[in-house]
Backbone:
């Protein structure tokens, strides 16, 4: 299978969270995907979180509860170790749908609400850092 070229910034939609056309940073240094949320609470193997951010208009303020896929230790960009829950979601990216695992974290101090990491890109995409928003043609009209 030929790999699709993507840029360093792209658009992604998380279908089952009703989040469409999120700006995402492609991060070959990150192992996994991460999404910005707050009020993250875990109880009985379920995680509840809130998607609300004034900067990112796709965020609708709704609280969401999903089964915890995994809790793992992640070294954040500032070098701190965090325990992050992750969930399984369906994403629409570059015109295709994929099941993906996304870790939940507060990215309010980051420019992009979503980070796309190596595991998601492996064997499907090649990153051309001189390009961005090659996914624009796949934008979902909502």
Residues:
């Amino acid at each position: 299978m030929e790999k699709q070229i993507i840029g360093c910034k792209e658009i992604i939609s998380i279908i089952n969270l009703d989040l469409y056309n999120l700006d995402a940073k492609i991060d070959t240094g990150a192992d996994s995907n991460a999404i910005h949320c707050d009020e993250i609470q875990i109880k009985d193997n379920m995680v509840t979180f809130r998607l609300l951010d004034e900067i990112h208009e796709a965020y609708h303020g709704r609280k969401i509860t999903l089964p915890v896929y995994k809790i793992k230790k992640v070294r954040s960009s500032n070098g701190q170790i965090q325990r992050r829950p992750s969930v399984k979601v369906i994403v629409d990216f570059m015109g295709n749908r994929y099941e993906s695992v996304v870790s939940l974290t507060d990215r309010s101090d980051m420019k992009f609400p979503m980070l796309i990491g190596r595991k998601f890109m492996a064997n499907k995409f090649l990153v051309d850092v001189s390009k961005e928003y090659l996914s624009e043609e796949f934008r979902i009209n909502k």
The chain has one domain: 4-135. The two ends are 31 Å apart (CA to CA). The chain has one helix and twelve strands. The mean pLDDT is 89.
